[in-house]
Design a protein that fits this description.
alpha/beta; 20% strand; 8 helices; Spore Coat Polysaccharide Biosynthesis Protein SpsA, Chain A; single chain
Length: 241
């Protein structure tokens, strides 16, 4: 039993959703490989290129050509953050699945400390300490987290923090529909209602050194609220039945 548990805790898929991150993806993947090799884990790294218009796709393919433990998923067009995460979860083959963005704003060396928690929990959802975003993004993020926690009865400190670890079997048990920024909320709301357990841990957040953030664009925000309405109605309908 102990041996099986240790094997499970050391079987990890790491995926990186990317959109126009040609200047960040190489260093982010290099760091991930360095950390995972030190773990001695059974691992894979998955780059999800969400229809980038720059050279992200080409750079990702070159990285995969040099590293057999790296694979790339390409979206022919930009489908949205939720679609990128869904592709990552579907492509993952290991017992645990971890994701962080390909923009280099998190340090993946903080991930190994989360692994022992999976002996007792199904999800580790991190929250950003000293968040390195402008004031408007911080306020929007705080309000959004409070709203979705109120609607779905969750107690999560930073719902959209892109530093999460899951047991992969969760994604065999829940059906996801969000293609945009609502995806983190949908995963947690559906998983908690299915009885999966969650714990939270702090993680450092760093300034973006290259590329452009897209989460604050109006079309992204409108899509998130539209998907939020649909998710709320869907879950409420199931609870009534």
């Amino acid at each position: 039993m102990v041996g099986k548990r240790e094997k499970t805790m050391n079987s990890v898929s790491v995926f990186l959703p990317c959109y126009n991150e040609q200047d960040n993806i190489s260093s982010t993947v290099d760091k991930a490989l360095e950390v995972l090799k030190k773990l001695g884990a059974d691992f894979e790294v998955i780059i999800v290129d969400d229809g980038s218009s720059d050279d992200t796709g080409r750079v990702a393919d070159e990285i995969a050509d040099r590293n057999p433990q790296v694979k790339v998923v390409h979206h022919p067009t930009n489908l949205g953050y939720g679609a990128a995460l869904q592709s990552g979860f579907k492509s993952a083959t290991k017992s645990l699945v971890f994701y962080t963005d390909g923009d280099g704003q998190f340090d993946i060396s903080e991930m190994p400390a989360l692994l022992p928690l999976m002996e007792h929990y199904d999800i580790v959802s991190c929250y950003r300490i000293n968040r390195q975003d402008n004031l408007v993004r911080k306020i929007n993020g705080w309000c959004w987290t409070k709203l979705v926690c109120l609607l779905f009865g969750m107690k999560v400190r930073d719902v959209d923090c892109a530093f999460k670890l899951y047991k992969r079997r969760i994604f065999d048990d829940i059906k996801l529909s969000s293609g945009g920024a609502l995806i983190d909320t949908e995963i947690l709301a559906r998983a908690i209602r299915r009885g999966y357990t969650l714990t939270q841990r702090p993680v450092h957040h760093y300034r973006r050194t290259a590329g452009e953030q897209t989460g604050a664009k109006l079309r992204v925000i409108f899509r998130a609220f539209w998907e939020l309405l649909k998710l709320y109605n869907s879950i409420r309908k199931k609870e009534k039945n």
